[in-house]
Amino acid sequence: MQQxxxxxxxxxxxxxxxxxxxxxxxxxxxxxNHLLRFSDNREIPIFTNMNEQVMEDFVYYLxxxxxxxxxxxxxxxxxxxxxxxxHRSGYETDRTIEDFPVPDEESNxxxxxxxxxxxxxxxxxxxxxxxxxxxxxxIGCLTALRFSDYSRLKPKNFVRNKIxxxxxxxxxxxxxxxxxxxxxxxxxxxxxxxxxxxVQHFNRQIxxxxxxxxxxxxxxxxxQVGQIQVSRLIxxxxxxxxxTARRTAATxxxxxxxxxxxxxxxxxxxxxxxxxxxxxxxxEENVKVLARHRFFTCRK
Length: 300
Fold this sequence. Notes:
5 strands; mainly alpha; 3-stranded antiparallel sheet
């Protein structure tokens, strides 16, 4: 094992040969820059064998920069990634850092009930292009596919009442039964779905569509910014995006009583812990699911 070296020196060497995308390398460099400023602030150099106390101090430093919890989390995960690379390159590192808890917060992401999904599907007072975007959104709400997948469905993906596709993000083949509403949409276009918009345009338009439909009820938005909890009420339509469709499908499948492991075969979640953090159910909704289980209904 080689002696530890200055962390930013190793990071610079690694980034010079890293084959990751430019966007990912930029995110790694941003994390290193934060750590460098933290090091300068403490006037103590940071080496690859940094310990848990250094990481705790670094988290506190990031929080004092008024960064959102998700940003702090991403920076810590990037530093941990680089430390793993340093270890594999033969440099001395503190392996206990792997178990360092990454700060997190409950997501404000929402899901739509099946009644709301049908409300969107039936709404007709839209332009032709808005109807096309709405149809794509409904397909996502009833398949749990990502936008990168439900936006590129072709006739070859519709096979005997199911959708068969290899996911773009993980290159995993998945099969999803076609809900009657999905069949209706697919048949309307004779399996040739209209050209999809960019995800940025899609997200802007689906918010406008849902506002027009009437999703204006205020929803509590809470976010940790630095060490301050920010709370405010925001109209529900502002929370709706391309990813809401996938979360909606997964949550409603679960509420309908489908076993988590079966849903996970579609969503691609590797652990139930990750899956249950992803879906959105209230305690009241959970009680309804439990009440339908045979444990609570069987008399013998």
